[in-house]
UniProtKB/TrEMBL annotation:
<dbReference type="InterPro" id="IPR006597">
    <property type="entry name" value="Sel1-like"/>
</dbReference>
<protein>
    <submittedName>
        <fullName>Tetratricopeptide repeat protein</fullName>
    </submittedName>
</protein>
<dbReference type="InterPro" id="IPR050767">
    <property type="entry name" value="Sel1_AlgK"/>
</dbReference>
<keyword id="KW-0732">Signal</keyword>
<feature type="signal peptide">
    <location>
        <begin position="1"/>
        <end position="22"/>
    </location>
</feature>
<dbReference type="InterPro" id="IPR011990">
    <property type="entry name" value="TPR-like_helical_dom_sf"/>
</dbReference>
<dbReference type="Pfam" id="PF08238">
    <property type="entry name" value="Sel1"/>
</dbReference>
Length: 305
């Protein structure tokens, strides 16, 4: 199966979108046009001038030789620079590289350190990944901590964490079986037709239907998820150069990251990059969270966006 390398980085749906075991044959190059390559050059300059978003895009390009000559040293240097500026997505990706021993010598301690930093910044994909690592240890103490992290990410509307947590409550892995909690999580996921949420919700409803402790009102609220009218909009899939061009055009319009930065006080910097959010330009282009939200669905968002 081909891996959507550049697209996975652009959407930042997961810092682990490119498996460590991916081979040249399994990685599909996306930046294979002159326009795309030129845009990457512009983004590299933005990265050198302080943009963590540009840094993580270009770092992955160098890591995989996509649009540029493969260069692990440059990839690591760019990503470290972004991580040193407190970018949690970069910290999570570096953690993965250390853990898997790709582009960096394998080092579990440093992998844990960078992951802890991303978790400390309340970065939802990092919360989910740490939870998964703890669950693999199969100890009651770490299981409880893992469930707490997943609940934290779920409360922050991180859909992949909600889906994973619902499965744990259904199966009793890492926690006691709690079909009521699973049903609550799955209800909203089913309304949005997320993955197999509807299938799992039907199983939960069937199981709870025989439980006298569950109210009819609650069961009705779960069943109502199947009656919600959905309006789906289908559009054309943007090319990678369109996506990269969109990022670069926003940098140009905002007139940011086009000259060397001066520490963390960068005029016109993006909110969330290089320090507090005062006097910054909002990343919110459309959906109110970050620039990544406007990028096309080139990868499965279930991986952690």
């Amino acid at each position: 199966m081909k891996i959507l390398t550049m697209a996975a980085t652009l959407c930042l749906v997961s810092a682990f979108a490119v498996p460590a075991h991916a081979t040249d044959e399994s990685v599909q190059a996306f930046c294979d046009t002159e326009d795309c390559v030129n845009t990457l050059r512009h983004l590299e300059r933005r990265a050198n001038h302080g943009s963590t978003l540009a840094a993580i895009v270009v770092a992955t390009a160098y890591a995989n030789g996509d649009g540029v000559e493969q260069d692990s040293a440059k990839a690591v240097r760019l990503l470290r620079r972004a991580a040193n500026r407190g970018d949690p997505a970069s910290e999570l990706l570096i953690s993965n590289w250390y853990r898997e021993g790709v582009h960096l010598a394998q080092n579990s301690e440093r992998a844990d350190m960078f992951l802890a930093r991303a978790v400390g910044r309340d970065y939802n994909p990092a919360l989910k990944h740490q939870a998964m690592l703890w669950l693999q240890q199969e100890t009651p103490e770490l299981d409880a901590k893992a469930i707490a992290l997943l609940e934290q990410a779920s409360a922050q509307a991180h859909v992949p964490s909600q889906y994973f947590l619902a499965q744990l409550y259904m199966s009793g892995v890492g926690t006691d079986v709690d079909l009521v909690r699973a049903g609550t999580l799955l209800r909203n996921l089913a309304i949005s037709n997320y993955k197999d949420a509807q299938v799992y919700l039907k199983q939960v409803i069937a199981a709870l239907d025989n439980d006298d402790a569950v109210s009819e009102e609650y069961l009705a609220s779960l069943t109502a998820a199947f009656d919600v009218e959905r309006i789906e909009v289908f559009g054309g899939r943007n090319s990678p150069e369109d996506v990269l061009g969109f990022i670069e055009s926003n940098f140009r319009r905002a007139n940011i990251y086009n000259r060397p930065g001066t520490g963390t006080r960068i005029i016109g910097r993006l909110c969330g990059e290089a320090g507090p959010a005062s006097n910054c330009i909002s990343r919110s282009v459309r959906h109110g969270e970050c620039w990544y939200d406007i990028l096309p669905d080139l990868v499965d968002p279930s991986d952690g966006c």
